[in-house]
Design brief:
Strand content: 15-25%
Order of helices and strands: HEEHHEEEEEE
Number of helices: 3
Number of strands: 8
Strand order of the largest sheet: 1-7-8-5
Oligomer: single chain
Radius of gyration: 24 Å
Structural class: alpha+beta
Distance between the termini: 81 Å
Number of domains: 1
Low-confidence stretches: none
């Protein structure tokens, strides 16, 4: 009789260990899925922004205020020209120094660094004047960016 009780208790312990393993694996899978979801949102933002800039770049003139969704852990979206010195409000906050670690052809960054799976991108056909970096705040998962192009200009301007 003692032998049957030992087998039953070993089976129960093994079942509990398996249940704990499956539950922890499920939480891990959900966490990874949410992280992939954030990366997809960032990718959609970059693709959408580049698409909107390309449309305006191909036209003769125009102006648009665009709104994009981003994960809430990203606080700022910044456009930086790393070939020019830092100036303005956000360079005083130390943003420019953080972005200098990346290749100079990159001109779109997310702050804080490492808040997105990918931290920097290259956006084509843009120009911005004034602050370097030029940053836009992420308010409740939404970022508003104004792009414009006047007649005769070669590049699309990003303004605040």
């Amino acid at each position: 009789m003692k032998r049957g009780q030992v087998k039953l208790s070993f089976g129960m312990i093994f079942s509990i260990i398996l249940i704990i393993f499956f539950i922890s694996f499920a939480f891990y899978a959900i966490y990874k899925f949410l992280m992939v979801s954030d990366d997809i949102t960032v990718g959609k933002f970059v693709d959408g922004l580049q698409s909107d800039i390309n449309k305006l770049w191909k036209s003769s003139q125009g102006s648009q205020e665009l709104e994009y969704s981003l994960p809430k852990k990203i606080e700022w979206v910044c456009f930086v020209d790393l070939l020019e010195p830092g100036r303005g409000t956000y360079s005083n906050r130390g943003f420019y120094e953080e972005f200098e670690r990346y290749p100079p052809e990159r001109n779109l960054f997310f702050h804080p660094i490492d808040s997105a799976g990918l931290n920097s991108f290259e956006i084509e056909h843009i120009d911005f004047e004034g602050d370097n970096p030029l940053c836009f705040e992420n308010v409740k998962g939404k970022v508003k960016i104004t792009i414009e192009k006047d007649f005769g200009e070669a590049l699309v301007s990003i303004t605040t």
